[in-house]
């Protein structure tokens, strides 16, 4: 069992025997893949409440309707666990498939490979050894000492969901319940002692729902909210704190794993114990991780980092100019290139919506030739659906004769559903 420590104390406690990946954990990750391919929410379940053999049997008992999706799920599970299990002959994906993948994983290097969001269309596999994931679990365990249960709303075939939905709960011997991405359902499900694993988009909706009711300062008493994948708006975090929630914001990436944490908005993130800043002046944008075997490994940071005198870090924007949409890294430049390749688009610009407009991308488009806004809008809907993932597709298309410019001739912002002095529609 893990030794319970006060939050903030350097972690080094002993892990429970179940802290590593077991058959039930693999089954949960595999089901996350299959549910994603079926484009549906994971069903309500508390997987620790069932014996492992039962869980392997019920994990993926439903057929994937689309044969291509079924094959995609099998390929992704094999990539995730470094296995090479062929598709089962029967029409459904059953527990036998997961059991075979788990046995092969135990005999191999015991690594898991998580895909980056692939915002340019080329996702990258980032391998992490089981020992490294257990190291993260040991460092995170003290923060969850007051918790009794984990509510998981993120897919656990991605690194964030895997660490906080499989490895950390096992380090703390906490049961896990999967929950759909629905604020109303979460309000009904949450109890004191719960830790909700979420992304900023969900917490934004959660706050809107609470603000519309009669929520008071005791609403979130003894409930921990964990947020990652993108910065949480300070106003949202401060509102959650005012409602009594304990908020832990996590900083990291698919490449690095969990790097740091903070419990107060507007403060720097603190590094977990096995991380340190690059030693040389030229390594200001590098991190060095002490691996479980004592070796050192350097990681280039994906963000521009501002370092404080006390060792805290503040991300100051992506180095590759990516933005976060629904927990996914998206490159507006890539979306612009895709739009510009359409026969009806003369010029275009893509930006992230302002907070008051929404949390998706918006596009301003100058039609080409004889294309009118109505016909171009219809054509682009099918065109973008074939070429871009959901998070990459702009939710607002504004049309005009010229791109928005300011008085100095530089690119300017525009209002969703309105214009920018350029004949927008």
Short description:
With 425 residues, this protein is α/β, with parallel strands linked by helices. The chain has 11 helices and 20 strands. A hairpin with a 5-residue loop joins strand 12 and strand 13.
- What Rg, in angstroms, do the CA atoms define? 23 Å
CATH homologous superfamily of the largest domain - what is it?
A: ANL, N-terminal domain
Q: Given the structure, what is the number of helices? A: 11
**Structural category:** alpha/beta
Report strand order across the widest sheet. 1-5-4-6-7-8-9-10
CATH topology of the largest domain: Rossmann fold
Q: For the residues shown, what is the average pLDDT? A: 79
Q: Outline, from the CA principal axes?
A: globular
Distance between the termini: 62 Å
Q: What features would you describe in this structure?
A:
This protein has 425 residues and is of the alpha/beta class. The protein folds into three domains: 1-16 and 110-320, Rossmann fold; 22-109; 331-399, ANL, C-terminal domain (GMP Synthetase, Chain A, domain 3, 2-Layer Sandwich), CATH 3.30.300. Helices cover 30% and strands 22% of the residues. It is built from eleven helices and 20 strands. It has helices at 23-37, 52-58, 67-81, 95-107, 130-140, 159-172, 183-189, 200-212, 234-242, 332-340, 373-387, and strands at 45-46, 111-115, 125-129, 149-152, 176-178, 194-198, 224-227, 246-253, 257-262, 270-271, 275-277, 286-290, 296-300, 303-307, 313-318, 323-325, 328-330, 345-352, 361-367, 396-399. An eight-stranded mixed beta sheet has the order 1-5-4-6-7-8-9-10, sandwiched between helices. α1 packs antiparallel against α3 and α5 crosses α6 (159-172). It is globular.
């Amino acid at each position: 069992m893990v030794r319970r420590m006060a939050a903030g104390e350097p972690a080094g406690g002993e892990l429970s025997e179940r802290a590593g990946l077991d058959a039930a954990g693999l089954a949960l990750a595999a089901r996350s893949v299959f549910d994603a391919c079926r484009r549906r929410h994971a069903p309500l379940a508390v997987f620790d409440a069932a014996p492992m053999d039962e869980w392997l049997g019920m994990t993926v008992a439903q057929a994937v309707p689309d044969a291509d999706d079924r094959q995609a799920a099998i390929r992704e599970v094999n990539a995730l666990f470094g296995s090479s299990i062929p598709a089962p002959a029967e029409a459904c994906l059953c527990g036998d498939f997961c059991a075979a993948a788990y046995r092969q994983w135990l005999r191999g290097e015991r690594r898991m490979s998580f895909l980056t969001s692939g915002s340019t269309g080329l996702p990258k596999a980032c391998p992490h050894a089981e020992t490294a994931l257990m190291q993260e679990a040991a460092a995170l365990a003290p923060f969850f000492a007051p918790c009794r249960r984990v509510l998981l709303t993120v897919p656990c075939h991605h690194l964030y969901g895997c660490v906080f939905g499989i490895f950390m709960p096992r380090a703390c011997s906490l049961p896990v319940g999967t929950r759909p991405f629905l604020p109303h359902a979460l309000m009904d499900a949450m109890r004191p002692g719960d830790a909700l694993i979420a992304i900023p988009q969900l917490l934004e909706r959660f706050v809107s729902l609470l603000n519309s009711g009669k929520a008071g300062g005791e609403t979130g008493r003894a409930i921990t909210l964990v947020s990652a994948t993108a910065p949480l708006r300070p106003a949202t975090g401060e509102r959650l704190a005012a409602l009594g929630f304990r908020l832990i914001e996590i900083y990291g990436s698919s490449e690095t794993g969990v790097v740091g944490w903070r419990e107060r908005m507007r403060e720097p993130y603190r590094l977990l114990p096995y991380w340190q800043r690059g030693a040389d002046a030229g390594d200001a944008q590098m991190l060095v991780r002490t691996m479980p075997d004592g070796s050192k490994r350097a990681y280039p940071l994906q963000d521009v980092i501002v370092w404080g005198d006390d060792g805290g870090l503040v991300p100051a924007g992506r180095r590759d100019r990516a933005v976060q949409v629904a927990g996914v890294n998206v490159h507006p430049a890539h979306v612009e290139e895709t739009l510009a390749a359409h026969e009806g688009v003369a010029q275009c610009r893509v930006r992230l919506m302002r907070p008051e407009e929404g949390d998706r991308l918006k596009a301003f488009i100058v039609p080409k030739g004889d294309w009118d806004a109505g016909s171009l809008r219809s054509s682009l809907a099918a065109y973008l659906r074939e070429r871009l993932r959901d998070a990459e597709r702009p939710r607002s298309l504004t049309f005009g004769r010229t791109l928005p410019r300011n008085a100095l001739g530089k690119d300017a912002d525009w209002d969703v559903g309105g214009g920018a002095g350029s004949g927008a529609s």
